[in-house]
Design brief:
The structure holds 3 protein chains of 3 kinds. By secondary structure, chain A is of the alpha/beta class. Chain A folds into 2 domains: 2-126 and 250-318, 3-Layer(aba) Sandwich (D-Maltodextrin-Binding Protein, domain 2), CATH 3.40.190.150; 128-226, Periplasmic binding protein-like II (D-Maltodextrin-Binding Protein, domain 2). In chain A, 44% of the residues lie in helices and 19% in strands. In chain A, strands 2-1-3-10-4-11 form a 6-stranded mixed sheet, with helices on both faces. Chain A has a 5-stranded mixed sheet with strand order 7-6-8-5-9. Chain B folds into 2 domains: 8-62; 76-139, no CATH class. By secondary structure, chain B is mostly helical. In chain B, α1 (8-28) packs antiparallel against α2. Chain B is built from 5 helices and no strands. Helices cover 63% and strands 0% of the residues of chain B. By secondary structure, chain C is mostly helical. Chain C has one domain (2-499). Chain C contains 20 helices and 2 strands. Chain C has helices at residues 2-14, 17-35, 41-48, 57-82, 91-140, 144-158, 166-180, 206-227, 244-265, 271-286, 299-314, 317-322, 328-339, 347-351, 353-385, 389-408, 412-429, 434-457, 464-467, 469-499, and strands spanning 183-184, 191-192. A two-stranded antiparallel sheet of chain C has the order 1-2. The longest helix of chain C has 50 residues, at 91-140. Chain C is globular and about 65 Å long. Chain C starts with a helix and ends with a helix. Chains in contact: A-B, A-C, B-C. At the B-C interface, α1, α2, α3, α4 and α5 of B face α7, α8, α16, α17 and α18 of C.
């Protein structure tokens, strides 16, 4: 009888432990949907799809990626903010959506992204570099700054649009070193490159993968790294922060869920994302597309958001960037 | 008054264009104009709107002269039903799912023809719905809600 | 000669069983996708992008290229048969192609489109092989002022698209320009005319407008006519294949269209789209009997189709030589190349010649496959359309509705389509043509963007347009075009005035 009691006790303990673990480890009970507010085929879309398909074995359910393009990602953000906060719906969020767009005066957004959604984790980072045309009369950032100061009102930089990271980064530089390089907005990075290669504009700051081909063919030359980490492809490339005090521009991409999602659910996502982003095959595919994998962990995302919020709104204000 | 308008097609086209042009000018007032050298967002639309208003006025004036023509009656039944079919599809797609939305679209739309009969239309609706699910959802993997959230768990 | 060596290399790369298979799959998928409105080649390529991880670079690129120009062929099919442009460039084909179909000459129109496209594809492929690097430098010399001048020229030239009243056509272009301006302004970031609809921040969906104006509007019109016993929608088929006279009539337009398309396709940023409109307008202007255009003139199908396909092939040039994508699809191809570890750009030609020339040769093979695929199918397609209209048009409605939804995944676009369906009917009753509106929609935001950017770069100096040689030349051509366009209509107005 005593043995039976011990056995029962052991069995009950085991059950209790197992049951307890199951409660702490959130898993979805139905298919999961990740919405992305950008058109299929873009960098963000590729990233999301790579992560989504790798998530399926860890979450145990299908992970469907749904495009709902428009308003620079905000249409999807708005749609997801109305979903149930049970961890089955997430939305792709960019650094720009969280730390630039809400602080652009005159910019009308459908939701207050910081109130309607909550961060889950950052998936990846894309290194940003500053490039210029091959025959530009300067080869380093200090030379560029000197030339800009000597030729006030004559130089210009291209960006992928008003309020884009290339735009605010450029204005930050203007403010920090006292230049007046004119901002010329384009519809996305690609059209800007044509004018840059032809020398009609002098500079561009943008995601590294966009420029790699042109650099290899000696149509563009890289000047400096906007990010904080060196990149394998251009080992000697100096950092922008060496010449422009305090300058760091990270272009990162993450996931968010509707506000009110319980902490264990977020933790469940974090655990799954951590495994996915540590997987060698996923890392290789991300690297092939120019992404640097991050940790997929909520604390990291919160820190990055705070960093961006401390930095970009001030630039917007000081440079008087506004949506007229 | 009606006798004065010899070309109602031109007249009403002109009215339509004029309305659109004036509406545009009104809305564009909220946008910064800037100068011709540094155009603001409101400049180009306003410029175009005034050009359109000019065309509209020419049309309206022109409609008072020359050979008469007429607009034949609007066929309200097909107009309303085809439009309603599309709108119904949009309304029902997420709540009721692709199948229900398509069937509704076809049934309403088919009613717009004087030659359709209920049973063949229903068969057509079911066939098209099934075919579409096969091609678009199964075949191409498009993210359609096949069964909408009214019916889902 | 170097060319033959390269082509031989390309041939050996392209004619492997694997590459031929993927070429075929691409062309088939492309045709299917082109026929289905809404789902464009871009979305399809995007969907297949992950699958290309496992394929090698050659089969992946060959397949995607096949999808791209296959969609051109498919898009013409629906444009001709049911007035639905499969993609924006097919709008021009609807003008005469659909009329030919209604007259029972749909088969001829389809065959014309296929033949014209094949010829254009062949020539453009040669151009690609021979002159890619040369042409790349041309595309680089087009900056904002040059593009603006080109757009203006295109707009004035396409006033000629109008069948009827010139004033109404101008008005429709203006309406299109205004609709095109809805959305976020590139130069200031302001969201214009969006009335709190976030969905409009990216502009009014071109597909929604096209499906509404050309698809639903036409359906309502046909139903109206049917109810009044006016005419059957489609006349009986008279012939499936072009007659010798037809072949003679289409030869010169195809040549001219090919030339125009090859040149304009090189320009990233709106070149290829313009080529179909430009080809049509040019044909109409130099035709012996311009009044036949708009009523089923075979030249009105041959030239734009050739221009279309030539433009599609040469739009690869900026990508393969400069690493710059001309449009979304090229951006996807660039993405696919990156996944495979290949840097798109001129280096590809030197570092990976078998890939480069293999791709080029397989484009030609793809065009051949498409010709072989499409010509026999002409009979099938045409018979499909002979289905009683009460079954056909709900099917068209289904394709329109689904197609529009798949663009952005929101139902707002469907409401837009419904609105434009009503407008399409109203316009038809008022004798206003939809094609100029669509052209205006495409060109409007581009024109403004290029104009403002030109002034931004020149720091407010308007002389930039005449200081740059290419821009000045194009503007000069525009002035000539205005005179050319205005003169016959002045004569016409005098004639009608005399009649009264």
């Amino acid at each position: 009888m005593f043995r039976t009691t011990v056995k029962t006790l052991l069995a009950l303990t085991a059950l209790a432990l197992a049951g307890g673990e199951a409660q702490a480890q959130w898993k979805p009970t139905q298919d999961v949907k990740i919405m992305i507010g950008f058109a299929p085929g873009g960098g963000g879309d590729t990233l999301t799809r790579i992560v989504a398909s790798a998530l399926e074995p860890h979450l145990g359910k299908r992970v469907i990626v749904e495009n709902n393009a428009g308003a620079n990602g905000f249409i999807a953000a708005e749609a997801v903010s109305k979903a149930r906060p049970d961890g089955h719906t997430a939305v792709f969020a960019t650094m720009s959506m969280l730390t630039v767009a809400p602080y652009l005066p005159g910019n009308t957004l459908p939701i207050d992204i910081h109130k309607a959604l909550m961060p889950v984790g950052v998936l990846a980072d894309i290194p940003m570099i500053m490039v210029t045309y091959q025959n530009a009369p300067f080869n380093t950032v200090p030379e560029l700054i000197a030339r800009a100061k000597a030729n006030r009102g004559k130089m210009s930089f291209a960006s992928g649009g008003v309020g884009s990271i290339g735009h605010v980064a450029g204005e930050y530089i203007n403010l920090a070193v006292g230049t007046d390089i004119l901002h010329v907005p384009y519809r996305g990075g690609a059209p800007a490159m044509v004018d840059l290669m032809a020398g009609r504009v002098d500079l561009q700051i943008g995601p590294m993968p966009d420029f790699v081909g042109a650099i290899a063919e000696k149509k563009l030359k890289p000047l400096a790294l906007a990010s904080a980490e060196p990149v394998a492809l251009y080992p000697g490339l100096p950092f922008l922060k060496d010449s422009v005090p305090g300058f760091v521009a990270q272009n990162w991409f993450g996931l968010m869920t509707p506000a009110g999602t319980p902490a264990e659910t977020i933790k469940g996502w974090n655990d799954a994302l951590a495994k996915v982003l540590a997987d060698a095959d996923v890392r290789k595919r991300l690297a092939d597309n120019g992404f640097i994998p991050m940790k997929g962990e909520v604390g990291e995302m919160v820190a990055l958001i705070k960093d961006g919020q401390a930095r970009w709104p001030k630039v917007i204000q000081d440079a008087k960037i506004k949506v007229e | 008054m009606a006798g004065l308008i010899r070309k109602p097609k031109d007249f009403f086209a002109g009215l339509l264009f004029l309305g659109l042009a004036l509406g545009t000018v009104h809305v564009a007032q909220d946008y910064a104009m800037g100068t011709a050298r540094r155009m603001g967002p409101g400049y180009f639309p306003t410029l175009l709107a005034w050009m359109l208003a000019g065309m509209a006025l020419i049309l309206i004036v022109r409609s008072l002269f020359g050979l008469r023509d007429g607009i034949d009656r609007f066929a309200l039944k097909p107009l309303l039903l085809v439009t309603a079919g599309a709108v119904a599809f949009a309304l029902l797609l997420r709540p009721a799912g692709l199948v229900v939305a398509l069937v509704t679209l076809v049934l309403i739309g088919a009613a717009g023809s004087s030659e359709s009969r209920p049973l063949p239309s229903l068969l057509l609706a079911l066939g098209l719905a099934a075919g579409s699910v096969l091609v678009f959802v199964v075949g191409l993997g498009q993210p359609f809600p096949v069964i909408g959230f009214w019916f889902a768990g | 000669m170097d060319l033959f060596a390269n082509l031989a290399l390309g041939l050996s790369a392209a004619v492997t069983p694997e590459n031929l298979l993927y070429c075929f799959i691409g062309c088939l998928l492309g045709t299917l996708v082109g026929v289905l409105p809404g789902i464009g080649p871009a979305a399809t390529i995007a969907m297949l992008l992950p699958a290309t991880f496992t394929l090698g670079p050659a089969p992946a690129l060959i397949m995607m290229a096949g999808i791209y120009y296959g969609a051109q062929y498919g898009g013409s099919t629906t444009a001709i048969l049911v007035n639905l442009p499969g993609e924006a460039a097919s709008v021009v084909t609807t003008i005469d192609g659909y009329q030919m179909a209604r007259q029972g000459r749909g088969g001829v129109a389809l065959a014309t489109a296929a033949i014209g496209s094949f010829f254009a594809g062949t020539v453009a492929t040669l151009v690609l092989a021979l002159a890619a690097p040369l042409l790349a430098s041309v595309s680089l010399s087009f900056g904002a002022p040059e593009y603006f001048a080109l757009m203006v020229l295109g707009l004035i030239g396409s006033v000629v698209l109008a069948r009827g009243s010139l004033i109404k056509a101008l008005a429709m272009i203006l309406v299109g320009l205004l609709i095109g301006l809805v959305g976020t302004d590139v130069n200031s970031g302001v969201r214009r005319f969006a009335f709190d609809f976030s969905e409009l921040a990216g502009g009014v969906s071109l597909v929604a407008v096209a499906m509404g104006l050309f698809g639903l509007g036409e359906i309502i019109l046909n139903l109206q006519n049917q109810a009044r016993g006016i005419s059957a929608v489609f006349a009986r088929i008279t012939s499936l294949m072009p007659s010798r006279a037809d072949l003679r009539a289409m030869t010169a337009p195809i040549l001219r269209g090919t030339a125009l398309g090859s040149v304009l396709g090189i320009l990233p940023g709106g070149g290829a789209l313009l080529s179909a409109f430009a080809a049509y307008s040019f044909e109409k202007k130099i035709a012996r009997d311009p009044s036949a255009f708009g009523k089923g003139a075979i030249q009105g199908v041959a030239a734009p189709e050739a221009a279309n396909n030539a433009g599609a092939q040469t739009s690869f040039i900026p990508l393969l030589t400069l690493g710059i994508p001309s449009n979304v699809i090229m951006a996807l191809m660039a993405g696919a190349m990156l996944i495979q570890g290949i840097q798109p750009g001129p280096g590809v030609m030197k570092s990976n010649p078998s890939l480069f020339f293999g791709l080029i040769v397989s484009m030609w093979i793809g065009n051949l496959m498409l010709l072989v695929l499409n010509l026999p199918l002409v009979g099938l397609w045409v018979r499909l359309v002979q289905v009683p209209y009460r079954f056909l048009y709900p099917a068209i409605m289904v394709f329109c509705a689904i197609g529009v939804f798949t663009i952005n995944g929101n139902t707002f676009d469907i409401y837009l389509m419904a609105l434009f369906g009503v407008l399409g009917y109203v316009f038809a009753k008022l004798d206003c043509e939809p094609a100029p509106l669509l052209l205006g929609m495409i060109l409007g935001p581009l024109m403004e963007e290029y104009f403002r950017r030109s002034l931004l770069l020149s720091r407010g100096d308007p002389m930039i347009f005449v200081q740059q040689p290419i821009s000045a030349a194009l503007l000069g051509l525009t002035a000539v075009a205005i005179v050319v366009v205005a003169s016959p209509s002045l004569r016409r107005r005098r004639d009608t005035a005399l009649q009264e």
